[in-house]
Amino acid sequence: MALLLMVLLSPLPARAETPPPENPKPLWEVGIGGGWASFPPYPGSGERRSLGLALPYVVYRGSILRASGRSARVVLLERPRQWVDLSGGGWLSVNSSEDPSRAGMPDRDYTIQAGPRWNLRLANAPEVTARLAAHGVWSVGGIGRWHPRGALLEPSLGIGRRDSGLPTGPRLTVGAVFASANANGYLYDVPTAHATATRPAFKAGSGLAWTFARLALNWNPRPDLRAEVFVSARHLGGSAIEASPLVRRDTWVSAGFDLVWVFQRSRRTVPDRPLGGD
Q1: Would you say 150 and 132 are in contact if contact means Cβ atoms under 8 Å apart?
Q2: What's the rounded Cα separation, in Å, for the pair 84 and 170?
Q3: For the whole model, what pTM was predicted?
Q4: What's the rounded Cα separation, in Å, for the pair 136 and 144?
Q5: Residue 98 near residue 47 (C-beta atoms within 8 A)
Q6: Residues 13-29: tens digit of each pLDDT
Q7: What angle do CA 276, 259, 212 make, to 5 degrees?
Q8: Where would you tag: which of 109, 193, 197, 242 has the fewest CB atoms within 10 A of its CB?
Q9: Residue 34 CA, distance from chain mean position
Q10: What is the spatial distance between Cα 53 and Cα 39, in angstroms, rounded to a whole number?
């Protein structure tokens, strides 16, 4: 009996507590953002578009799903200095009636690209990251109207700084896009049926589509405000599509800005994690 009382009255061993994450950040952040951009309908076009948007802004620092406010990705494998994720991108539809070089040709649907991307951190201060993306390409004309359009390979190098996984200050990204013949041809082929005296027939091959450089300046005047101004240039010189009559400019520039207000953050915190995206 005395032994039983000693056992019952003895203090319980302390439960091991989960250590707090290093450099903790909110699991999620929610806000609203608005911006404006000027860009050509497709790389090499002689026309320009302007677009203004207001959209929800979401940052998520999950162990698998991550969002940087401007892009999202799924982490497949992660090590201290390298990781593999699923990333993507796309391009707006092209209305041939608004582009004299494509007059009389079929419109082009929205295009999306998605696939794995390998990332390697080369340095931390400033952050230098090499990336290699292998993406499939599809055109999307509506529900049930998805068509494969080939594949592309995109090596790139990003240099800049991040805070809480997000870009801060100036950031430079340079790279190139190599595409299959059908991916290059979706925008740049000219079938014989649509050839004219000033627009000869053209069939794109596989190979270099363009090289690119993007410079962005990110500014965080307050914890709940974020802004970005960017300029981006793509060069089609020496590419497999340079000779297409639909290419009116070898080099083109796009530019824009956005402003974000973050109005809600998660109380739960997680370790600071790279969110990807440039």
Answers
A1: no
A2: 25
A3: 0.85
A4: 18
A5: yes
A6: 443 344 454 678 899 99
A7: 50
A8: 197
A9: 17
A10: 14
Q: Which residue, 93, 97, 76, is CA-closest to 85?
A: 76
Q: How far apart are CA 216 and CA 168, in angstroms?
A: 9
Tell me if residue 115 falls in helix, strand or coil: strand
Q: What is the CATH number of domain 21-270?
A: 2.40.230
Cα separation, 254 vs 48, in Å, equals 9
Sort strands 25-26 and 127-140 into parallel, antiparallel or unpaired. Answer: unpaired
CA distance 242 to 262: 43
Give the separation between CA 91 and CA 84, rounded to whole angstroms. 23
Structure tokens at 7: 């056992």
pLDDT in tens, 99-155: 899 999 999 999 999 999 999 999 987 889 999 999 999 999 877 788 999 999 999
- Are residues 210 and 250 in contact, defined by beta-carbon separation less than 8 angstroms? no
Please give the pLDDT value at position 3. Answer: 37
**Tell me, what DSSP letter sits at residue 5?**
H
- Please report the DSSP string for 185-246 in residue order: HHHH-B-GGG--SSS--B---SEEEEEEEEEEEEEEEETTEEEEEEEEEEE-TTSTTTT-TT
The helix (run of H) or strand (run of E) holding residue 255 is strand 251-265
First to last CA, the chain: 69
Question: How far, in Å, CA of 86 to CA of 195, rounded?
Answer: 39
